[in-house]
Amino acid sequence: MNNLRKRTALFFEGNGEYRKTGHYIDIFLISLIMINVIAIVLESVVSLAQQYKYEFLILELVSVSIFAIEYLLRLWSCVERAEYKSLDCGNFQRRLKYLLSPLALIDLMAILPTLLMMFITFDLRFLRVLRLLRVFKLTRYSRAMQLLLQSFRDESSSLLAAFFIMAVVLILASCGIYLIEHDIQPDKFGSIPAAMWWAMATLTTVGYGDVVPVTPLGRFFGGVITLLSMGMVAIPTGLLASSFSEQLRKRRIMFSDAVHECLHDGELDGKLDDAQLEHLENLRCKLGLSKQEANKAIKSQLSARTKNLYCRHCGERQD
User: Which DSSP category does 44 fall into?
Assistant: First the structure.
C-alpha cells in the first residue's frame, strides 16, 4: 500500500522515473481545465446553452469526476511528499495541513460548486462564476503564477502597510471632496460614502468621469489627489515586481548551489553522473526553471570547477 501511495505521489509530482508520465498527466489536466473554461463561457450564451444542454451536462459530470478523483488521490498520497513526510506528526495531521494549503483549496473549489448544486438550489449565473474558478487550477502548472503567489506571501506585510496607507488617503480624499463639493452637488457628494466612489476612481487613476468636482477649489483638490495617487498606486506594483524578480533569482541560485554540491561530491574531473543529473532534473522541475536556465547554471559551475582544478600561474593540475 505504501509503495502504491508513493508511486501515486510521484505520478502527480512528475519526479524520478515517473517524470514523463507526470508530464502527460499535467498536459491532460491542463487541457481539461481549458476545455471547461471555454465550455462555461459558451454556456452563458442562452441559445448555445439550450441547444447543447446535454453535452454541457455530460462534460461537467465527467470533468467533476476526474477532478474529484485527482483531489482524493492527491489527498491520499500527499503524506509521501517530502515537505509533508518530514513533519513530526501523523498522517492525519499531514493531510490536514495539505487540505489547508492554497493549491488544495483551489482543487476543492473546482469540484465544490457542482457537488453543492446536488443539495442546494443555486442561481445558474452564480454557479457559472464559481465554476470559472477552475481556471485557478492552472496555478499548479504555471511557474509564473507560483512565483506570483510566493511574492504575495513574502511581501504580505509590506503590501498590507501599503494598502493601509492607501485606505487612509482614500478616507482623507473622500472627506476633503465631501466638505468642498457637497453643497454644490448633493446628489453626487451628499455623504462621505458617496464621495468614496470618486476618491477610489481618482486614487486608482481610472477616472471614470461620471463624478467630477465643479468648483475651483474642488478641481484643485482633485488635481492634488490625482498627483498623489500616481505614487500611491506604484508602491504595491513595485513591491510585487521586485519580489517576483527576487523569487526568480533565489531559484536560480538554489539550482546553482545544488549543481555546485553535486560537483563537489563527485570526482575532480568535474563530471556529473546519471544519479546527479536525475537529481538536478527533478530539482529543475520542482523550481520551475527552464532547461535553458538549468543548462546555463550547469555550464557556469562546470566552467568554474574546471578553472579551479588548474593553477592559474603554471597551468599544472592541483591535487
Answer: T
Q: How far apart are CA 77 and CA 73, in angstroms?
A: 6
Q: What angle do CA 146, 272, 26 make, to 5 degrees?
A: 30
DSSP H helical segments within 78-155, as ranges? 82-85, 91-99, 102-117, 124-131, 143-154
Closest CA to 146 of 283, 286, 20, 252: 286
Cβ(272)–Cβ(263) below 8 Å: yes
Give the dihedral of Cα atoms 255, 261, 267, 273; nearest 10 deg.
-40
Name residue, grid cell 468614496.
Answer: 196
Q: How many CB atoms lie within 10 A of CB 164?
A: 10
Mean pLDDT over each residue of the chain, to the nearest integer: 80
Query: In this predicted model, what pLDDT tens digit does every residue of 169-225 receive, in sequence order?
Result: 999 999 999 999 988 888 888 889 989 999 988 888 787 878 889 899 999 998 898
Grid coordinates standing for 311? Answer: 593553477
CB neighbour list of residue 64: distance below 8 Å, 6 or more residues apart: 111, 114, 115
Q: Is the pTM of this model over 0.85?
A: no
Residue 222 belongs to what H/E stretch?
helix 216-265
